[in-house]
Structures are given as structure tokens and as C-alpha cells.
Specification:
Layout lengths: L1 E7 L4 H11 L5 E8 L5 H8 L4 E3 L8 H15 L3 E4 L8 H6 L4 E5 L14 H10 L3 E8 L9 E8 L6 H24 L3 E4 L2 E4 L3
Parallel strand pairs: 1-2, 1-4, 2-3, 4-5
Antiparallel strand pairs: 5-6, 6-7, 8-9
Helix pairs in contact: 1-6, 5-6
Bound molecules: 5-O-phosphono-beta-D-ribofuranosylamine (GRF).
Length: 207
Amino acid sequence: MKKIAVFVSGGGSNLQALIDNTIAGEIKGKICVVISSNKEAYALQRAQKYGIPAYIFNSKEHASIDDMYCKINDTLAECGVDLVVLAGYMSIIPQHFIEKYCNRIINVHPSLIPSFCGRGFYGDRVHSAVIEYGCKVSGATVHFVDSGVDSGAIIMQKVVDVAYNDTPQTLAAKVLKVEHEILPQCVALFCEDRLRIDGRKVTINPL
Ligand code: GRF
């Protein structure tokens, strides 16, 4: 059974979706550890409720990002982690960690990549930009993490309509809803070894 680490920084609604889908048997894997960049993250309370070990790694409390990730590496190694899922995680990830977990780090982004992504595009900033631009659709993207920002191979996307009267908050809620659908689906496919990567192309092997 694949072992999953979930990296969080905030409310943890995506973590909750992963937990729910694991309990329901949709994800044939085990969330064995939660890593949070923020000691106040409500995601930590969600982990505690389900008895999932959680650790806080705040870059301000380490000599360097590299030093912090060496300690994160040790924590993940103890669990034998196969997959890292970034679920609202707001800290940078160094190259050596990305290389160590090559094609084994999955992120969810609240736009249709390659639009409205990259440096500075997170949270409501994404949805404000979408509305400002006058887009008629937006959505969520789940992708593998590579050395860029929101630039890895796309696994799955799902579209939502942008209504004329949408605010960044109402659009965020619509996008978050589809995040909660496609992130667990992608993690489930990874756990079943059904994702094939060929350069930028990710294909899903049939059952
Ligand atoms: C969400 O807005 C999501 O788009 C992004 O992180 C934010 C918080 O998610 N990935 P969560 O509720 O902490 O999972």
C-alpha cells in the first residue's frame, strides 16, 4: 500500500478530502504523515482528529531551507513515503527534494494552468486575476511538481464557470469544490500505479 505525506499550510480542506477518500476506500493508500509550514494551520487539527502524525517545519526556525528539508526528508524516510501531496502548502521546495521525489510530488493549483499560475499567483489573487481578465471559465489543476513554479506535467483539470457576478470569494469556493474532487482522484490513480508520464504528457492507464 502506498504511503502518502500531505504538506499543508492552512485550513486543510484538501487534506480532509484525501482523508475522506482514504476512509471510503477510493484511495488505496495510507496518509502516514502531515507536514505543516504553519503551527496555526487548522489542517493540524484535522490530522490529530484522525490520528495522523503531524510535524511543523517553519523555515524561520531552521538555519536554512536546505537544513529544514534534510529534517523533513528524515521524517518522510521513517514513514517510507512513496508520494508527497502539496495541499495548500505555501513554502518553497528546494531542488534536491524535488529530485529525490521526482514525479512523486503532486500539487493542486486553483486555476487552469498555464493560466494564472507561477510566482505570486496563490489564494484569492488567482481568482481576482481571473475575474479582472474577464474569463468565462476557470478551474483547478493537479500536476506533478518539477523545478519550476506550477509548471510540472498536468495530471488532471476540471472547469468551473465564471459568473458575471462572481467575486474572488465565490469563485474560490467553486474552484475549491472541484479541487476536492480531482486531487483525491489523482492520488488514487497514483496509488494504483495508473499514471504514466512521458515528458509533459501524463496518461491514465485503464483499469
Ligand atoms: C486553496 O485555495 C487551494 O486552491 C490551494 O490552497 C488553498 C487552501 O487549501 N491549493 P486547503 O483548504 O488548505 O486545502
